[in-house]
Description:
Chain A is mainly beta. Chain A has strands at about 5, 10-15, 20-25, 30-35, 45-50, 50-55, 60-65, 70-75, 85-90, 100, 105-110. In chain A, the strands form two sheets. In chain A, strands 2, 4, 5, 9, 10 and 11 form a six-stranded mixed beta sheet that branches. In chain A, strands 1-3-8-7-6 form a five-stranded antiparallel beta sheet, with no helix packed on it. In chain A, a hairpin with a 7-residue loop joins strand 9 (about 85-90) and strand 10. Helix content of chain B is about 0%, strand content about 55%. The interface of A and B includes residues 31, 40, 48, 97 and 102 of A.
Amino acid sequence: GIQVEQSPPDLILQEGANSTLRCNFSDSVNNLQWFHQNPWGQLINLFYIPSGTKQNGRLSATTVATERYSLLYISSSQTTDSGVYFCAVGDSGGSNYKLTFGKGTLLTVNP
Amino acid sequence: GAVVSQHPSRVICKSGTSVKIECRSLDFQATTMFWYRQFPKQSLMLMATSNEGSKATYEQGVEKDKFLINHASLTLSTLTVTSAHPEDSSFYICSVENNPPYYGYTFGSGTRLTVV
C-alpha cells in the first residue's frame, strides 16, 4: 500500500515563530488532507489539498503531486496551535475510501 | 463539511463485557461510514468500512467477530467491541465522506475505550 512519511516527528516553537511541516507519499493520490488533532483527540480538518496551494488565515498548504509531497505552513504560531498534525492520503490506485495516515508531527508551542 | 456525532466520548468497561459506540451523520445521509482506531501516541488505522444495508468490509487483521459493525440506517453506524480485553483499549474514531461542495472526510470526536 501507499506509504506516508511526515517530518519532523516533533517540533518545539516559541510563540510567534513560523514552521513548515512536510508530508511525503509514495504513490499517486486522489485525496490529501491535513488534520490537527487537539488534546481531546478531535481531528480538525485543515485542508483538502490533493494538489495546488491553499491558505486559511495563518495556515497555508502546498501539494506538489508530481513530486509526491505536501507542505503545511504555520505562521505566527500560537499556543493553541499545539497538538499533532496528520497528513492523510487516498490512494488513487486503490480503494477510493481508504485514508492512509502518516505518523504525525507533534507540535508544541511555548508561550 | 459533514457534521458527525460520536457517542460516548469516553467509556470504561470490565474485561469480558461488550461496548457499543455510535456514529451519526447529522446533516446528510451517509451510505458509507468508516471506523478507525488509534493507539496512544500512534497514528490512525482504518479498521473497517461500514455500508448501509450490507455487510461491513474489514481491513486485513481486524477480527470481524470481535468488532461488530451495524449500519442499519443512512445516518447511524455502530461499532460493538465484543468480549473486550485490555488490549482493545484504544481511541476509536468514525468518519464520513463530505458531500460537494466540500471534499475529503470529516471525523467524529472519537471514543476513548478503557478496558479494566
